[in-house]
Amino acid sequence: MKGFRTLLVVTVALALVSGAHALTFVTIRSALGGNDYVDWGKLGSAHTVVRNPFTVTSNDGLSMSVSKPGGPFERRDQGYDWNDWPGNFAPGDHLIWTRDENGAMTIEFADPVLGAGAQIQTDAYGSFTGTIEAYDSLNNLLGSFNRIGYSDASSNNSAIFLGVLDNSRSIKKIVFMTDGGSQDFAINRLDLVTQGGPVIPEPGTMLLMGIGGLAIGLGRRFGRK
Q: Please, what's the b/e burial string for 8-38 (b: 16 or more CB within 10 A of its CB; e: otherwise)?
């Protein structure tokens, strides 16, 4: 009976943990419902070389670290010639570019958020697969989503949007990449959702809370004569 009781407690507690998050893939900026943002223009004018990693603050004061494998980033602005970024963001968009280096761009927030997202485009023209991943404070993967995009020089705001939205403020880190990390790319304004939703304890804390609470309750129940 004691062994069965322990198994039941652990099973139910794990169910509570697994059901804590409901991550949604968002492909339209307006659907993310951002209340904060990061304008990469604050890092300097176009062609400014930005160290790797670097720290930036959102419009509302949320600090975050941005990093990638290899060397520095570079600031670009969407334009119509090679002196700018001749892509398919909106004209004048302030961009951060991985600067001819393949791999992922990781953005880690000082405090967890409900959601985040940006438009993305590879440096090379043609079809590509964009990916966004979200992680919690314990570096657990909350979800990974892919979307097919097309990179061209139309400068018409057709760059695909990749965003994630959770039902709790549990997103501590997001990762952008293209073609599984085999292409360099740029993203435009990073929109953030920082208001609303409960702060859910980390999975380990929830597990302990669940086991403790259930153990007490079941102990009382099975302890009755």
A: ebeeebeebbeebbebebbeebeebebebeb
